[in-house]
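Today's session is about reading a structure prediction critically. Students often jump straight to the picture, but the first step is always the sequence itself: look for stretches that repeat, for charged clusters, for runs of hydrophobic residues. Only then move on to the predicted structure, which in these notes is written as discrete structure tokens rather than atom positions. Here is the chain we will use throughout the hour.
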Amino acid sequence: MTTPVAQWLPGMDITAERLNAMQQAATLLVTNFGADSSGTTNADAGIQLALNAARDLGGAQVVVPPGVYLTGATLRIYSNTRLSLMAGAEIRRNHAGTVIVNGDAGQSFGGYTGHSRITIEGGLWNMRGTTGGLTGSAMCISIGHATDIVIRDLEVRDLPGYHAIELNSTTHGTVSGCQFRGYIDPGGRDFSEAVQLDLAKSAGVFGGFGPYDHTPCEDVLITGCHFGASGTAGTTAWPRGVGSHSATITKWHRRIRIANNSFEGVLQYGVSAYNWEDATITGNTFVACGSGVRLRSVIASDTEDTKLPDGTQTSASQAMRNLTVTGNSFRGGLAYDEPIVCLGESTGTILNVAISGNVIDGSTAAQNGIRLQEASRIAVGDNIISNVAGTGISTEDCNTLTITGNNIYNAAGHGITLVDNSNSNIIGNQVREPGENGILVQSSSFVQLRDNFVRSPSRTTNNTAYGIRLSTNADSINVSGNKTRPHGSGNEAAYAFSATNTVTTLSRYGNDWRGTYATGQLNDLSTTPNTTATDIT
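Below is the predicted structure for this chain, in token form.
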């Protein structure tokens, strides 16, 4: 018979050693180890004794009964431990620093070989960021170099500066059913995420322990969580809900799933997918947030993020790919940035993007509904975009783009714009009552505009905009089967269709331009038109 081991350590074989260690699992109450539950004296020593006992057993469940537990120092949790706070249990921070981290300072388990297979669940984790002596930046739960991490059904309240949860160099991580309420910016931290995904880049990025081998996060699910305000005086909602804000060239966070969360009043981005790949963002609601979802490649001007792992400066971004934003709902606010923004760099194009089935209702400060820039191989389809303060769908410096089946209503700017794009299709969209042009194509080539319906263009100005407008050296454009109609009263478009004299290689046929516009129906000044069939006027 195999001799049982007294302690499970990272690096053990996943064989009989691990099974025997797990067989010794126990349920340990922190109050049996001297942890005070009255909230009048620090309880961290007793909690740590229970966590150490779980470590020495090779794995156990550590239970925190109802009560208030002050922490006067950082707690350390180890492999195969389940830390469970019962209903009515509160961890109340009483020191400047992180509340709990997986492992010891000075340890050096690289990759995903650190303390793992950890569950942290339940209770209120009160960071007390407005309390004197506790207002400096702090972290609640910090995980690094780990695998198989579950954090669920807990609330982190009133955190100053850093993050409620940091998953750094972590694979197979789940955050579910949590509430992240209340944030305090102690100064210079207006970009913090409640849940941050980061890589083991430096002590300045992850202060728990090394090694700093640039291990990223992979296979992470964040689901069923709420991000917002606590209502505590002196606090706000979080600046960002989920995201990243540092990078290393040749590394990416991959297989990230953000699903069925609620973001309420978040000041900047609900989700900031910075240097992510193979990511899905689906079924979330965003209410009165500064912005919704940002897909962002490495910022080329950031001299820290553009370094290779060995420190060599590249002065360039890198491509990121395979991203899906689908079935999300955005309502109100949206003054910080667009509801959905996909922003690449000339040295870091965003590739293979699907944006579909989203509902956007309202934006302020001239923000567009969906904005794409420096992106390629994109499908934008079947979205409903209403009442935005800018353009419904705005694209620039993109190629291999399909915009189809979208319903855009009452955009204060244009309905759809293509600027400096190529190889793009705009097919089967409905644009109603845009403030300016229904569809605008500038400086773009190899474009198909087909079977779109534009009703009541130029609602904010009279005789200055158009149903469909081609300009500024647009080339190789096909315009077919489209239909425009004027509003019938008030401001009207100058023409149903207009092409300037810089437009070349235009093919136009089978369109319906009927109705009474401010000046006329058709204004085609293109230099090489090809009208093989008659439009209806």
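Discussion point for the tutorial: The longest helix spans residues 44-57.
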